[in-house]
Amino acid sequence: MVNNGCLCCTVRGDLVKMLLDLVKKKKDKFDHIVIETTGLAKPAPVIETFCSDELVSRYVKLDGVVTLVDSKHAMKHLNEVKPRFVVNEAVEQVAYADRIIMNKIDLVTEGDLEKLTDKIKHINSIAQIKRAKFGVVDMDFVLGVGGYDLDRIDSAVKVDDSHGGNHHHDTHGRHHKDHHHDHLHDSAVSSVSIVSEGTLDLDEVDDWLERLMEEKGVDLYRMKGVLSVNGSDQRYVFQGVHSTLDGCPGKTWEPDEKRTNKLVFIGRNLDETALRKGFKGCLI
Q1: Where are the domains positioned within the chain?
Q2: pLDDT tens digit string along 142-182?
Q3: Beta-carbon contacts of residue 40 (< 8 Å; ≥ 6 apart)
Q4: Are 200 and 237 in contact (CB under 8 A)?
Q5: What is the C-alpha to C-alpha distance for residues 280 and 274, in angstroms, rounded to an integer?
Q6: Domain 3-142 belongs to what topology?
Q7: Which UniProt keywords are listed (predicted)?
Q8: Ranges assigned E (strand) in 21-85
Q9: N or C: which end of the chain has fewer CB within 10 A?
Q10: pTM of the model
Q11: pLDDT tens, 229-257?
């Protein structure tokens, strides 16, 4: 336990100390460390502890974020209007998740579950969702997630057109009219997906993402992508949290495989048109 059981930014130092103590005393005696936060905890400070603290990241890696959703009451909390500049904690916890467990499904109707699923997918289009009663799910669903493993980004970035989340399909840089979405300025948290064939200039991509983090890092909760870049037969995979970005070459494209770029952005006040424009500016 850390001070008051709280893992918000005021006690991140305690979290670092606790993790390093565990590594020092019991390094070879555990496979996973499970951190359970309160229902009002902000996920970002905990995630950033693993990404930004050099000592922690040397010995411990973040596997993933699992969010337990109360299907009976979640919609009320997700739709709660907060004062200006105050972020809805329930929405943030869904936005940062790699896995989402929709619990208490026996207390609601199938129609309510479908509406809640659509709401969750609008906020976070890449998290895997599992329904449960009494919180019972397979252990493999919550451990070994690999949510921050670049080698698994390709399988993680799946764009599901059947649910919410603003998606955009583009072939060779030309916008298909049948997939057109109106320009959106969403003050709520949402996700934007871009799927496009074509080859990207990696230097231009790096410049674009760096500018994006500098200008919008506070509002960019998560981003992941699989890219087809010039001069390489390998995918380029990347992921980011706020102003932290990590990327590297991935597995090789097959000779007859369609080289499709897939990017997902999750955040607040996302300007879908600006994101599309920035992406198109990197196409060769």
Answers
A1: 3-142, 161-280
A2: 999 999 888 888 777 765 544 445 544 443 333 333 333 33
A3: 89
A4: no
A5: 10
A6: Rossmann fold (3.40.50)
A7: Chaperone, Hydrolase, Nucleotide-binding
A8: 66-70
A9: N
A10: 0.81
A11: 999 999 999 999 988 899 999 999 999 99
